[in-house]
Amino acid sequence: MNFKIIEIEFDFSTDNNANTISDNDKKELIEDTISKTWEADDEVDLQEKISDTTGWFVIKMLSCKV
């Protein structure tokens, strides 16, 4: 199935300074994630694919099938 992300929130907290991300990069990552059409088996798979692709854990998201 194909999905579009309507809203998404990542967990940008980190205990390692090597993984810090600027506010501008956070905004760009969110915009990039929302702009794509994602292919996944279901919403759980979708969340895992986004986390794996971006390198950041998805806290919550709103998506729709397209």
Write the layout of secondary structure elements.
Layout: E1 2-10, H1 23-35, E2 37-39, H2 43-54, E3 58-65
Overall description:
The chain is of the alpha+beta class. It has one domain (2-65). 38% of the residues lie in helices and 30% in strands. The chain has two helices and three strands; from the N terminus they run βαβαβ. It has helices spanning 23-35, 43-54, and strands at 2-10, 37-39, 58-65. The chain has a three-stranded antiparallel beta sheet. The chain starts with a strand and ends with a strand. The model has no long low-confidence stretch (mean pLDDT 92).
Distance between the termini: 8 Å
Estimate the strand proportion. 25-35%
Q: Helical proportion?
A: 25-40%
Strand order of the largest sheet: 2-1-3
Summarize the biggest pleated sheet.
3 strands, antiparallel
Form type? globular
Mean pLDDT: 92
What is Rg? 12 Å
Got a strand count?
3
Order of helices and strands: EHEHE
List low-pLDDT spans.
none
Number of helices: 2
Total discrete domains: 1
Estimated structural class? alpha+beta
Question: Main attributes?
Answer:
single chain; alpha+beta; three-stranded antiparallel β-sheet; 2 helices; 38% helix
Concise account of the structure shown:
With 66 residues, the chain is α+β, with helices and mostly antiparallel strands. It is built from 2 helices and 3 strands; from the N terminus they run βαβαβ.
